[in-house]
Amino acid sequence: MPLEIERKFLLNGDLLPAAVATEPIEQGYLAATEDGVEVRLRRIASQCVLGIKRGEGGFSRVEVELPVTETQFAELWPATAGARLVKTRHSVPVYDTLAYVDVYAQELSGLRTVEVEFPSEETARAFTPPDWFGAEITGAKE
Amino acid sequence: MPLEIERKFLLNGDLLPAAVATEPIEQGYLAATEDGVEVRLRRIASQCVLGIKRGEGGFSRVEVELPVTETQFAELWPATAGARLVKTRHSVPVYDTLAYVDVYAQELSGLRTVEVEFPSEETARAFTPPDWFGAEITGAKE
What stretch of H or E contains A29? Predict the structure, then answer.
């Protein structure tokens, strides 16, 4: 997924459709520059990934994800101290795609977001959020 | 090479032993944080690598290198604008190991460095630089 086109929202209330999958995510930021480069370590289920995003604002960012071993993850993880988060990701069907509902824990407890990825900026713009989506926060920092 | 233990020097004059290999290196920095994380894209010969280093000062840094495809390299390379360098790396035998002599081009033209990697901090400390090594710059930014 080189180009990531997505929109992100808060949730509107407590109810949402049943999830088809639920996975724990642990992530930490290795670097985030003023010109919009983010380097992130993530463990999702049991997979470790280093993700690099570049580009600011709007729907679209370039994203490259590289698998890392548990050992490489452990070597780099200390450098994310102070910039970590834990959340549970629920994959929820929306129209003909999946929305990812993230329920944050620890310092960010109480925060719940939902994001949807699109194949093009046109489909992103045309998307009508269902009732259970709340305020849009596309482009806001996590 | 998770733990990188190396010492780095300028060259002392123009003469050095014959190289056993010579490779062009093109690299750019995606991010460099105040607490010592560096994220670097490098093309050496025809191999593309994303390198992440953490830790400051002294001989030792943690280094993780991940192979990236030409396509991934091309997607991320624009984010290194303003933080790129081009150099030629000469591998030169020193005692029973190889030293890497880097001859910089473009903005850094005139800079020539040599670095040696060690299996332990003890061997790093015990290393006696040969005559053609100049001032030590271990720990200095590239």
Answer: strand A21-32
DSSP H helices in chain A = 70-76, 121-126
The answer to whether A104 is a known catalytic residue is no
Question: Are A54 and B2 an interchain contact pair (Cβ–Cβ within 8 Å)?
Answer: no
Q: What is the number of other CB atoms lying within 10 angstroms of the CB of residue B68? A: 21
Do the Cβ atoms of B48 and B70 come closer than 8 Å? yes
**Contact A66/B68 with Cβ under 8 angstroms?**
yes
pLDDT in tens, B76-118: 999 999 999 999 999 999 998 999 999 999 989 999 999 999 9
| Cα of B34 to nearest chain A Cα, Å | 10
CB-based contact A115:A127 (threshold 8 Å): no
Q: CB distance A54–B30 less than 8 Å? A: yes
Q: Which residues of B touch A31 (CB under 8 A)?
A: 30-33, 37, 39
- What does the alpha-carbon distance between residue A28 and residue A38 come to, in Å, rounded to a whole number? 11
Upper half-sphere CA count for residue A125 (Cβ side, 13 Å)? 4
- For chain B, the residues whose C-beta falls within 8 A of a C-beta of chain A are 2, 30-33, 35-37, 39, 50, 52, 54, 62, 64, 66, 68, 71-72, 75-76, 78-79
ipTM of the complex: 0.76
Q: Rounded to 5 degrees, what are φ and ψ at B137? A: -130, 25
Which residues, listed in sequence order, are joined to residue A76 by a DSSP beta bridge? none
pLDDT tens-digit profile of B37-65? Answer: 999 999 998 899 999 998 866 677 889 99
Instruction: Output Rg (C-alpha) for chain B, integer angstroms.
Output: 15
Spot the catalytic one: B29, B95, B100, B104: B29
pTM of this structure: 0.81
